[in-house]
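Hi U.,

Before I forget, here's the chain from the pilot set. I'm dumping it here mostly so it's searchable later in email.
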Amino acid sequence: MSLWLWTAIGVTVAGVLVAWRRRLRTAGSQEGDLTSIVLEAMAEEWAARTDTRTGEIRAAVLGTGAPELRTRLRAVVREVEVVFTKPQTGRSDAHTVVRCTFGHPGSTLQAETATSWDDLPASVRREFIRQDLEVIRRRWILTS
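Structure:
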């Protein structure tokens, strides 16, 4: 009986670990989708404000670029909000607004675009479908 008990415990623990890792991987890819949308909208402006090129901005945000630039970006960018408006019936893209607030009070830049349904973060698609929401807001943070 002891062998069966330990086997059951081992299988349960392994199942929990697999589910936990899968959840972490999914959350990371959703964050990546949102980062891509933010970079598409803001990379040029951020490059101009930091006197660099957009490629350097992208690398810094994605964690493969210069750490000093990432630090400068954190000082310049105070807050980024992304607002998705549900696609109208028969349309496949969501109206997307990326609003960036800079370190100076009142200094805000807003970019509007259309994001295809497939390029929306998975969590946003799920909320549009399951909760029947018209507008979904996400806050984007430049992580350490």
